[in-house]
Specification:
mainly beta; 55% strand; 4-stranded antiparallel sheet; 361 residues
């Protein structure tokens, strides 16, 4: 199997991080070697790769950029031989604290969630990878205030695009809602679908979401409620309907915790969610006949405050990014049980937040 590049988004304002780090992955063993880094960018916390694999996009999770209120999205070209990134340009996302970005399957648009601003932004992408000014900006209003410190207003936390590239699914932690928007890729607009959207349990705080490979189910991790919720997904309308919801924590756990990321295994058999505080990955088995989940186990991530995590392209290995212990830990995935075994490999990287992979073929 060919080697891969792994790019790591980080926080630069709270530690020793220089920016975006690049590692080369051995396609057989999954071992990592740092090959490059891109400095001079502030808080590139979340990354996205263009479908053509030539470009990388990084949010600048800040309150203002270049003297303009609001965060930004920065575009880079990727040198596959060295892992080096060359900056193309950047554009305002219209709101402060952008924390998540996705690129549509045609490569024509980026969709960004602004956490602090509680807003969503759509930006056009040119053939050379450069970003144009926002083609559509949507402000969310309100806040459930169930958690008065975290839900005092809207907080759009992720922009997740449906497998068929028709819908943008926005998890808003402050509203306890998952809002579904139909994407108009001709006009660069988003159209809200009230009937397709769903309200979470009060105080749940939906954060990230992942679709099942079969396209029939979606799974949301709820940051404040420390739960994972399984949904039926109707591809025709974009409608989400809850199946079941389970805790990410073991019974009896009393410590502080918030959740972060969620992913379905490449084979569609298991679901994983990260716990910050308990410092584990919660593991669930997926019933592929109806999309429901059941708890299997939890696994220490070998560090503190696990954020994003990602799979080796064949699903053999999983990599967990521990933000507050400055390390990324490699695990072997048991294909039969979904359980994880540490491989004794630690990748040192300051303040890792997001992992994205690019094949070298």
């Amino acid at each position: 199997m060919s080697d891969w590049l792994m790019f790591v988004g980080t926080y630069t304002s709270a530690g020793a991080s220089k920016g975006i780090y690049a590692f080369r992955m051995d396609g057989e063993t999954g071992g990592m070697t740092q090959v490059n880094f891109e400095d001079g960018i502030i808080n590139p916390s979340f990354l996205a790769i263009h479908p053509n694999r030539k470009f990388l996009y990084a949010v600048n999770e800040v309150a203002e950029s270049s003297g303009v209120p609001g965060g930004a999205l920065t575009a880079y070209s990727i040198d596959h031989s060295s892992g080096a990134l060359s900056r193309i340009n950047h554009q305002s996302t219209g709101g402060p604290g952008p924390c998540h970005v996705s690129i549509d399957a045609t490569g024509k648009y980026a969709v960004v969630a602004n956490y602090n601003g509680g807003s969503v932004c759509m930006l056009p992408i040119a053939e050379d990878g450069s970003l144009g000014r926002s083609s559509h900006f949507i402000q969310h209003y309100g806040g459930t205030k169930v958690n008065p410190q975290r839900q005092e207003k809207a907080h759009a936390h992720s922009a997740n695009l449906s497998p068929d590239n028709r819908f943008a699914v926005i998890n808003d932690l402050g509203l306890d809602q998952i809002r579904v928007y139909e994407m108009d890729l001709e006009a660069g607009k988003l159209k809200f679908s009230q009937e397709s959207s769903v309200t979470s349990a009060p105080g749940a705080g939906p954060r990230h979401l992942d679709f099942h490979p079969n396209g029939r189910y979606a799974y949301a991790i709820n940051e404040l409620g420390c739960t994972v919720t399984a949904y039926n997904y109707d591809a025709a309308s974009g409608k989400l309907t809850e199946i079941n919801s389970l805790s990410t924590l073991p019974e009896g756990y009393q410590g502080d915790n918030t959740t972060a990321d969620v992913h379905v295994s490449p084979d569609g058999k298991f679901l994983y969610g990260s716990n910050r505080g308990h410092n584990t990955l919660a593991i669930f088995r997926i019933d592929e006949s109806d999309g429901s989940i059941e708890s299997v186990a939890d696994q220490s991530t070998g560090g503190k405050t696990p954020r994003n995590f990602g799979f080796h392209p064949e699903g053999k290995y999983l990599y967990a990014a521990n933000q507050d212990s400055d390390n990324i830990i490699q695990f072997e995935v048991d294909a039969a049980t979904g359980e994880l075994t540490p491989m004794g490999r630690e990748i040192r990287c300051p303040m890792p937040v997001c992992l994205k992979f690019v094949p070298l073929d």
